[in-house]
């Protein structure tokens, strides 16, 4: 009897606090998707679906004052994770991981924001690590403003190899 009363009291307390703490505009708890702020910039959690497969999520992430921020996930048309990106707008970079259809990491590296002909765009820059579909490291490619220094990943020579 006492346990039942305690559960009911806790439930009433939680529901009451949610109603009191909810904003006046009737926000759906815990959030709404795809919202713009007062200035018209994308704000908060965002998601898009494939136009020809409206039930299939294409990507999801978060905006702050119109800039992508934090973790973003991009999915294939079949629903598998294709890419995971960590946006760091203050540092003007994105840490990126691409995946094979089997879920293993394909490649990982950084992209940086560069200005080119009065346009801002992210380009791969620095060392990118490459793996085969079983997860075995293949080597790296160095990129300079989106241009690779080699066609194939480079693996360092092991000691004793010439």
Quickly count the helices.
Answer: 1
User: In CATH's first tier, which class applies?
Assistant: Mainly Beta
- Total domain count: 1
CATH fold assignment: Histone H3 K4-specific methyltransferase SET7/9 N-terminal domain
Give the DSSP E fraction (strand runs of 2 or more residues).
over 45%
* Cα distance spanning the termini: 80 Å
Quick check: average pLDDT?
84
CATH architecture: Single Sheet
Protein name: Antitoxin component YwqK of YwqJK toxin-antitoxin module
Signal peptide: 1-26
Keywords: Signal
Organism: Rufibacter quisquiliarum
General description of the model:
- This is Antitoxin component YwqK of YwqJK toxin-antitoxin module.
- Keywords: Signal.
- The chain has 162 residues and is mainly beta.
- It has a single domain, classed as Histone H3 K4-specific methyltransferase SET7/9 N-terminal domain (Single Sheet), CATH 2.20.110.
- The protein contains one helix and eleven strands.
- Strands 1, 2, 3, 4, 5, 6, 7, 8, 9, 10 and 11 form an eleven-stranded antiparallel beta sheet that branches.
- A hairpin with a 2-residue loop joins strand 7 and strand 8.
- The radius of gyration is 23 Å and the shape is globular.
- The N and C termini lie far apart (80 Å).
- The relative contact order is 0.07.
